[in-house]
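Sample log: MFS transporter.
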Amino acid sequence: MPDSFAPVSVPGIDGEYSRKKIMLALMLPLAMSLIAVSMINVALPSIEHGLGASSSDLQWVLSGYALVFGMMLVPAGRLGDIMGRSMFLVAGVVLFNLASLACGTATTPLALNAFRLLQGIGAGMIGPQSAGIIQQYFRGAERAKAFAIFGMTVSVAVAIGPLLCGGIISIVGPDAGWRTAFLANVPIGILAIIAAIFWLPWGRERQFVAILTRHRINTGQLPKTQRKPDVPTVPGTPASLHVDLDPIGMLLLVASVVCIMVPFINATHPIMFLLLILAAVLLVAWVRWERGYKARGHEPMVDMSLFSHSTYINGTSVSGSYFLGGTSIFVLVALYVQDGMGATPLQSGLLTLPNALISGVSAMVVGRYAFRYARTILFGCHVSILTGIAGLAITAWLAEVADLSFWWMILPTMLIGIGQGGLGSCNQTATLMDVPPEMGGTAGGVKQTAERVGTAVGNAIITAIFYFALAHSDWSFAFIWGLAGIACFIIVSASLNLYDRHVNGPGVG
């Protein structure tokens, strides 16, 4: 990690904390939760055989995690902002860890799905706290470098998940392999908990304890001799014991997210798409409620002033539209090379390894320049991804007409990796740079919710295009048409990025 990360002093706490250690404590659980998103695609056939799961069971193993992950992001971000991000991050890791252990020992499809839902809740508690803690303890160029590490972690974790799971299944065997993949999270989770306890500042939690102590003294529950020294306020810390959780606001937003995602991740009948109308009604009701709640002197779950920052709105739009297409690239690659060209799950995972490695390198390299040129770099990243998509289409065509090996896909996926790593790093910086630290967790949760919704909607649309084309032609033709759909979404994201650059300039400094 960058040597320029200076130690951080936390108000009211003796000593200093290493920002390098803070980043490690944040990225370890974040990577663990994201690997669980992408690895499951490789494990589904083994789960089907090992538990006798139906296609409906497998759909919920895949989509149930994504659904509750998306539901939890904003409420968890809000709770972390109010009561302490370090505490909620550790709670999320503990829940994720216990659920992973239960998934690895599940004996029925129903039990596995129930534990996957719990795992998704834990993952949803982790993500917003990582962004919020960076917002709270990093400033300026250091924040840009921290978000570069954040982007690198996201890119590498998502890309490397299928390889890790495919490797475990190849070594242990299909029956025990998928269980081992879940159980492998347990030691990682234990390390993450230990790192968080010792390396995170816990500033807000210490402040909250101090407030509680003063309250108990004032009410006579503690003698004045036990009064602790006054603790200076940490930004975003509540000034009293009153905590306004805005439960109605939470319920309205969670319900709207569910109504958006369910038709796309588990549409059993076309009538389920009517839920999108209900989602629009709920979103309007949520916005009106949040504005009215603040006008009445309360603290809304999401303060609508967050959307007064054009950098935040534009950056979230760029990210959400990119996720409509970008996350489907390797879904199509896996379908094409495994079902269409006879590759094994391990070969499919190895095909993505160079992408994961170069994505991480790209995130770190461009992170050095994000503070000054973030939005300019973002456009270059979009061009790199589109060029890689074109390369994949050409490779698929040559595979059809000249019997070209699927291993040639490594070259265009590396171009995609360059773009993905840089995009994740720079967009995170450009989106959250102007957000006040006390809103960091909530802002990160809203942004990640847009990304999760984009992933669910995009995967449904792109796979529908792919299978429609496959019904009328061959695998290569279907793959190319799916890539064309992805390219359309990437072009939309690039256009929004150009607009953002025009409004807010090339950099964030």
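Observation: The mean pLDDT is 85.
Observation: The CA atoms of residues 72 and 124 lie 5 Å apart.
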